[in-house]
Amino acid sequence: IKKIGVLTSGGDSPGMNAAIRAVVRTCAFHNIECTGIYRGYQGMIEGDFKEMGPRSVNNIINKGGTILKSARSKEFMTAEGRKKAHDNLIKHSIDAFVVIGGNGSFTGGLIFNKEFGFPVIGIPGTIDNDIYGTSHTLGYDTALNTVVEVIDKIRDTASSHNRLFFVEVMGRDAGHIALNAGIGAGAEEILIPEEDMGLDRLLDSLRKSKASGKSSSIVVIAEGDKIGKNAFELKDYVEENMPEYDVRVSILGHMQRGGSPSCFDRVLASRLGVKAVETLLEGKSNYMVGLIKDEIALTPLEQAVKGKSQIDQELIRVSDIVSI
Ligand code: F6P
C-alpha cells in the first residue's frame, strides 16, 4: 500500500477532525501518501480529492465538524455510482481507504469491498454510540458533556419556577445519549427506545416525585423513544392528567453534534486513526477499529454493521435508584 484515502461520511461528529489528523500523520510516519476525499462517498464519485501532508492537518484537533465535509450519498447506493468512485480511486492511485462514519457508511464500504476487493477500514464516528464493536464512538463523549451542560442550565429554570421539563435528545434509534446524559444531569426519568416505560408508569413516577417533596423535574426523552408520543404530546398528556405540573419542552437538536471535542474523544480519535492505517499496512481489510474494555480492537466490518450495540441494563437500575 502506497496511498490511503480518508473520508468522513454520514452525520458529522466531534473528533472526526482529530481522526483525520491521526490518519494523515500516521501515513506520513510510515512514508506513504494520503489523500483527503471530500464530501464522503459523493466526493469519491465526483473525484473531489486533495493530497494531504502532516502540515495540512495543523490546528484541527480541537475543531468540531469535519474539514473534509460530509454527506449522505444516494448515488453511492447504485452500482453505477460505485463504479465511478472506483474509477476515481484507481485514477488517483489510491490503494485503500479509511471511512470515518456510522453504520450506513460502513455498509457502503462493505459493498464496495465486495464488488472491487478494495481494502477498507472503518472508524466509528457518530454521536449516537449505536455501533457494535466499540464501547464509544467518536463524538459520543463530547455530545454527553454538551447535553449535561445544557440540562444543568435548564434545571435552573425548572427549579426556580417549579416546572417539569421534557428534554429531547438525539440518538436516532438508540438511547445511549439519553440514558448516560440523563444520569449525569440528575434526570427524574429517562425514556429510551430500548425500554418501554409506558405512560402509566411515567405518571406514577411523576406523582411519587411530587409526593416525595420534589418541586421540579427533568425528564430526558430519546428522540427514538417508543412511548408513542413525542415531547410535545407528552407535555399535553401530563398537563391533562396532572394539572398541578407546569410543563415545558426543550428539543436540543443539532447543538448536540457540534463543538470542540472532549479530551476523551481526541485521544480516542488519535488511537483509532493510528490503528486504522497500521491495520491496512498489515495487509488487513474489512475491519472496524474500536474500543473494547479500554483496548483498541478490531471487529469485522460485517459484524459491526449487523450487530446491535446494547444498552447497559445496570445503568437503568442505577438511574431508578438515584432519582428517587
Ligand atoms: O446520527 C447522528 C444524528 O445526529 C442522529 O442523532 C439524528 O437522528 C440524525 O443524525 C439527524 O440527522 P440530520 O442531521 O440529517 O437531520
TrEMBL record:
Native organism taxonomy: Bacteria, Pseudomonadati, Bacteroidota, Flavobacteriia, Flavobacteriales
InterPro entries membership: ATP_PFK, ATP_PFK_prok-type, PFKA_ATP_prok, Phosphofructokinase_CS, Phosphofructokinase_dom, PKF_sf
Ligand binding (Mg(2+)): N103
Record-annotated Phosphofructokinase domain positions: 3-279
GO molecular function, one term: identical protein binding
EC number, UniProt record: 2.7.1.11
Function noted in UniProt: Catalyzes the phosphorylation of D-fructose 6-phosphate to fructose 1,6-bisphosphate by ATP, the first committing step of glycolysis.
Alphabetical UniProt keywords: Allosteric enzyme, ATP-binding, Cytoplasm, Glycolysis, Kinase, Magnesium, Metal-binding, Nucleotide-binding, Transferase
Positions contributing to ATP binding: G11, R72, S73, G102, N103, G104, S105
Protein name: ATP-dependent 6-phosphofructokinase
Keyword Cytoplasm in annotation: yes
Pathways involved: Carbohydrate degradation; glycolysis; D-glyceraldehyde 3-phosphate and glycerone phosphate from D-glucose: step 3/4
Active site per the UniProt annotation: D128 (proton acceptor)
Binding residues annotated for substrate, in chain numbering: T126, I127, D128, R163, M170, G171, R172, E223, R248, H254, M255, Q256, R257
GO cellular component: 6-phosphofructokinase complex
